[in-house]
Design goal:
TIM Barrel; 292 residues; alpha/beta; eight-stranded parallel sheet
Amino acid sequence: MSRFLGTGVAMVTPFQANGSIDFDGLAATIEHLINGKVEYIVVLGTTAESATLSKDEKKQVFKFVTERVNGRIPLVAGIGGNNTTEVVAEVNQFEMVGYEAILSVVPYYNKPTQEGIYQHYKSIAQAAKLPIILYNVPGRTGVSMSAETTIRLAREFKNIIATKEASGSFDQFNAIMADKPEGFELISGDDPITLPMVALGAIGVISVVGNAFPVKFSEMVRLSLNGDFKAARPLHSSFLEFTRLCFVESNPCGVKAAMKELGIIEDYVRLPLTPIGDSTRAKVVAEVAKLK
């Protein structure tokens, strides 16, 4: 059974008012997620504002999370970018202790061809000592990895074990599920379509809203995985407006505002992101009250 069955959370990086990393807030977030019974944590994915962290800060976060978690829950490291040589170097230099896989996003901004995407991941797969989870999120990267490229990578590299799919395309999901090799898994990258993706055969989700509400959201996923969609649907529906609000002014600004309302962390973000506006904040606060 996959170690990544169920709910993973793409954990936020809390900051202080001066822009430095809030390690107390990071510790509080870790405990919130573990107590919330999520199955694993993704460290320094895109929700963590990893593009704004220096290499030294990333090392500090990876190390801090490893030590704080202390083996209580599986960890996945977010290591990706649009410079293949640099990503391969980061993978080679990564201190693997405490981590069970690497999540690596499709190269952004460059808009590579499918062959370029394939060669990018081939280079990472040949360098990596940990299993790799692909991450297709065309809304952020500007290009979508096709189902054909995903399957090609899955078949040719046994250490590529799953894909986090945030394309929103059920044609793509269907194609992956129809042709994937045994042992290669589909993971939802979009909170609001996790339930139907699980019905199709996905093994769970790497979630954003789980940062705020890990208990309820992971329970919805577990019910779905157990085939109890009748019980899962009301929970699924209860999150729809909250999820929409979390993304209306860029991720992770909305979910950080919710976490502030819940007393977990402050909602500081790093430029070019800014905190959500008053109107959106009022709506987030109202949804938090409903979900509590």
